[in-house]
Amino acid sequence: MESCAVKEEHQRSLQLMSLTTNVTCNDGSPAGFYFRRSSSSKHWIIFLEGGWYCYDQRSCHLRWLRMRHLMSSHQWPDVRHVGGILSSDPEENPHWWNANHVFVPYCTSDSWSGQSHAKPDSKFSFQGALIVDQVVRDLLPMGLENGSSLLLAGSSAGGTGVMLNLESVQKLLHREHAHISVYGVSDSGWFLDRAPFSREADLPAPVDGIKKGFSLWRGRVPHSCKKHYPSEPWRCYFGYRLYPTLTAPLFVFQWLFDEAQMTADNVGTPVTKQQWDYIHKMGDSLRHTFRNVKSVFAPSCISHSVLTKRDWRLLQIDDVSLPQALHCWEQHTIYSMQQTVNENSTSMLSDAPLRLHRKESRKLLKSTYHNSTSPTVQRKRRRRKNRNKLRGKKRRDKKRARERLERSPKLREPTCEHRFIERCSWPQCNRSCPKLHNPFTGEEMDFIELLKSFGLDMMSVANALGIDIHTLNNMDHEELLNLLTQQANR
Length: 490
Prior knowledge:
Strand content: 5-15%
Number of strands: 14
Low-confidence stretches: 348-358, 367-372
CATH topology of the largest domain: Rossmann fold
Shape: globular
Protein name: Palmitoleoyl-protein carboxylesterase NOTUM
Pfam family, one: PAE
Number of domains: 2
Mean pLDDT: 82
Family: Belongs to the pectinacetylesterase family. Notum subfamily.
GO molecular function: hydrolase activity
CATH class of the largest domain: Alpha Beta
């Protein structure tokens, strides 16, 4: 019994695989990935791990001392167990439990964009973009070449990495495997290049860090975005600037009050009205950047990353869970891509014979010239023969194209919303937000306590909501959230 349980656990886990070429982590140790093969699915998920970045020799040295596991593969275990969208449990992961799962550990500190080797004055290399490319190449003979779709996903720095690498992965695959639909999901990687709340000597603004890092890493950004920012290509690390230039389909998940953004902006845990005002404006700024994003899920919560959390399916906006929204978007994306492929195939089938008809008509002119008794008879015979031949070929071409469409998998275009942006502008006003805890007592905080921790004048809050302070203090969580949501909908 024990051996069977061990075998089953081994089958559920992700197994460590080494890359076939010498692409490395920061310290020169070999990069790799964790893989669980599906025996029945042609759907693949490649997930890029997150973990911030370093941007100069000093910050990278400190990172090496404090977070060496994000710069080296020497301590990687042989197996990994990852939850959420990489879980093999149908209850935890209802739509992708049976997919081919690939988890790529983050060990390059460059938001998956680097292309540089270690230099004499530095012991670190930055090869995140090269690792992504090599993982895809290594997976092709392992079954990806026969796959039907590839979802490139990632959280935090991995979410930024998805946006930076999505089009290069699509181009790499479509050179020889155009049948594979490629699309991406960026989780908590949509950062803003706004001025921070305060400046400290040890903490540069996000813009300064990215500018320095881009040079250190020899960063690779999408060519289409680089053309848009020729003198400032580092701008492409910020999702709202990069997104309009992308052609590959992308689904964006982002907490409106992202903890990593708050850390980057050096605002800290809000305890003053000034901090609260800054955070509130941050949420408004994020919401504003989504105005032209086709597919987005943005709850009004204080948190960071979600895709590999085991309770990810509980998160909802307007009674639609994140997995439901993501799955319907994916089906719509695959349907649209397949329709495009079928239309292109039909067009090629119908256009190519027309070119052939013209060539054959010219040959026919030459071959029949001497077989007619007069020029007039010759012309009539030639026209009649060419018309009949062309009609026959057109009928066969249409029949062939129709049969090709009939043989392709039948997909029904799903009808669902692709934009879920929280209407309520208060942090944690979504009922399904991850719970917050008091940093001093460790106890779970209710919504009133949270508002007070922001340094808000509760009398002003009551006046804004049109109720008296006694009613506000005695209102339960559910009533208060309903009231706030109604205010947001006005």
